[in-house]
């Protein structure tokens, strides 16, 4: 596993006729850590979802490791290169055990090890739908660490500490700080922003780097 680059140029994302992300440019070198802050509804989640191919209504250029995703196989490859912690962690439409969520990382062993470190190792046989918000967030972080162990070189995390207690927030900030991967983390948490070398702020779809 090694860190990879992310390059956005002139990225505009629409929800119907509404422009949620407006001509965003951003270049991250392998290993850069960026905190993405800004007001609610300013387009942060939409932007990261576009990088993953979960929001396809965009124009402009999104390149990971210098490559733009094209077609189904291109986006499938993108999802092996990019680890993802979603904001509203979905319990899924079908009953899913924590163990199965972790296995979806493609490195179940590493994800389970991370789950143990993150204090959710005792919940492997519980349905994901039965976890508390903080437990679910820890489980999704463990899955992302499994994805990184499986070869992903970029982590996109959407408010990964929003549901965590103080100890959990500090622990996740530590884990993120130590990751040798490229990281973009949407956060309203100062502890997390402080461990990132770069900080950008979004407002009404525009991105401005502040540090
Ligand atoms: N599926 C959708 N359909 C229509 N509008 C949407 C949809 N998803 C998001 N939006 C709108 O796009 C804008 C950007 O939303 P987005 O979730 O990207 O913001 P955000 O910066 O991540 O917000 P927050 O900090 O509250 O999570 C908001 O005005 C939101 O209401």
UniProtKB/TrEMBL annotation:
Is Nucleotide-binding tagged as a keyword?
yes
Entries under PROSITE patterns matching the protein: ABC_TRANSPORTER_2
Q: Does the record carry Translocase as a key word?
A: no
The record ties this protein, via SUPFAM superfamilies, to:
P-loop containing nucleoside triphosphate hydrolases
One matching Pfam family, short form? ABC_tran
Cite a single GO MF annotation.
ATP hydrolysis activity
Under Gene3D superfamilies, the record lists: P-loop containing nucleotide triphosphate hydrolases (3.40.50.300)
Alphabetical keyword list? ATP-binding, Nucleotide-binding
Name the domain of life this protein comes from: Bacteria
Q: Which residues form the ABC transporter domain?
A: 6-210
Q: Which GO terms describe its cellular component?
A: plasma membrane
- Cite the PANTHER family for this sequence: IMPORT ATP-BINDING PROTEIN (PTHR24220)
Name this polypeptide is given: ATP-binding protein
């Amino acid at each position: 596993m090694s860190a990879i680059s992310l390059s956005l140029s002139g990225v505009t994302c629409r929800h119907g006729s509404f422009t949620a992300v407006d001509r965003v440019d951003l270049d991250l070198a392998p290993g850069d850590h960026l905190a993405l802050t800004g007001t609610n509804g300013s387009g942060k989640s939409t932007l990261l979802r576009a990088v993953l191919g979960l929001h396809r209504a965009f124009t402009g250029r999104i390149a990971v490791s210098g490559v733009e995703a094209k077609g189904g196989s291109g986006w499938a490859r993108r999802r092996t290169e990019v680890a993802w912690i979603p904001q509203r962690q979905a319990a899924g439409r079908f009953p899913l055990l924590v163990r199965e969520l972790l296995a979806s990382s493609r490195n179940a062993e590493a994800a389970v090890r991370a789950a143990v470190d993150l204090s959710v190792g005792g919940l492997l046989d519980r349905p994901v739908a039965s976890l508390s918000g903080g437990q679910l967030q820890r489980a999704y972080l463990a899955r992302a660490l499994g994805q990184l162990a499986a070869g992903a070189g970029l982590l996109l995390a959407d408010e990964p500490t929003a549901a965590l207690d103080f100890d959990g927030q500090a622990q996740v900030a530590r884990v993120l700080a130590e990751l040798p991967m490229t990281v973009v983390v949407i956060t309203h948490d100062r502890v997390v922003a402080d461990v990132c070398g770069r900080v950008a702020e979004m407002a009404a779809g525009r991105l401005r780097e502040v540090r």
